[in-house]
Amino acid sequence: MNTSNQHSKQSAISTKSAGAGLLAAIVASLCCITPVFSLLAGIGGIAATFSWMEPLRPYLIVLTIGVLAFAWYQKLKPSTKEEIDCACEEDDKPSFWQSKRFLGIVTVFAALMLAFPAYSHIFYSKNDSTGGTVDKEQTQIKFADFKIKGMTCTGCEEHVKHAVFALDGVQDVSASYKDASAQVKYDVSLVDVNKITEVINSTGYTVTASKVSDWNGQSNAFQTTEFQTIELTVKGMTCSGCESHITHAVGELDGVEEVKASYEKGNTIVKFDPSQVRKDKIVEAINKTGYKVVEKPNNQ
To answer: In what order do the strands lie in the sheet with 141-149?
Structure first.
């Protein structure tokens, strides 16, 4: 019976490891799954909610592979002679949740989650150019180049393209998360660059700079956002987890470009666009985390 108990424990460990591996795979792909979910649910502003997790993705992928490999080792580990001799007939058939079939299903699903960025574009409808043949005597075609904060995968690119293409007058859109940019060809008689910027920002990503060109290639200079930097003294931080909590809360605000929190120095430095967010909103976001700003922000 001791051997039977050992078999049961091994099966339980394998099942728990499979669950942990599946959870790690889902978490690893949240930054790419969320844009698709936001599109299907019609909640555009949440697309970039988990973009801050993208730097953790390689570690979560390694964790997923390691946990599932351990689960398979527990499942496939050969029995010893003593275990075979002592095995009871009622223990020969494990439940579905402790079977190789269940572990196989979990492994396949985890693999699909990890590979999600590679095929996320299939969830977005293909938008054909709406411009057709352009009569340059009646309309004026422009080309806008945007710098965008928050895109982490091809799903983010597709989300931005889908949103911008829905605007009347937009003829072509391309986006690159690697270059943190998007390019839009549009008819200025139907839509302007401010409206395009507004739509991109509504997806949860943030336009930090834009450049408008005539279609013949003449270009205006980048309209670069002028950021401000403030240093806030924050009371209550005791570890790196506190820093991460504040960094995430403030980083969620529109117009925030960079956040650096230090529990050792007891401060938080925020770089932000004053045209999109006010200092008091930053202070409010920090205070809502449970930590307290004890000084008024001072410009550096």
So the answer is: 170-176, 181-187, 141-149, 206-214, 223-224
133 confidence band (pLDDT: 50, 70, 90) = very low
Whether 165 and 239 map to the same domain: the answer is: no
pLDDT in tens, 222-265: 566 677 899 999 998 888 888 888 988 898 887 788 899 999 99
Distance (Å, whole) CA 49 – CA 295:
29
The DSSP result for 82-117, as a single string, is HHHHH--GGGSS--GGGSHHHHHHHHHHHHHHHTHH
| Domain boundaries, position 194 | 130-224
| Cα 146 to chain centroid, rounded | 19
**Cβ neighbours of residue 27 under 8 Å, at least 6 residues apart?**
53, 60
Q: Where among 122, 140, 158 does a domain terminate?
A: 122
Per-residue pLDDT tens over the stretch 106-119: 888 888 877 777 76
Last residue of a domain, one of 224, 240, 274: 224
How far apart are alpha carbons 218 and 143 in whole angstroms? Answer: 10
175 within 8 A of 161, measured Cβ to Cβ = yes
How many structural domains comprise the chain? 3
Other Cβ atoms less than 10 A from the Cβ of 38: the count is: 19
Q: Say how far apart CA 127 and CA 161 lie, in whole Å.
A: 9
* DSSP 8-state symbol, 8: H
Residues 164 and 178 in one domain: yes
pTM above 0.85, yes or no: no
Q: What is the CATH number of the domain that holds 251?
A: 3.30.70.100
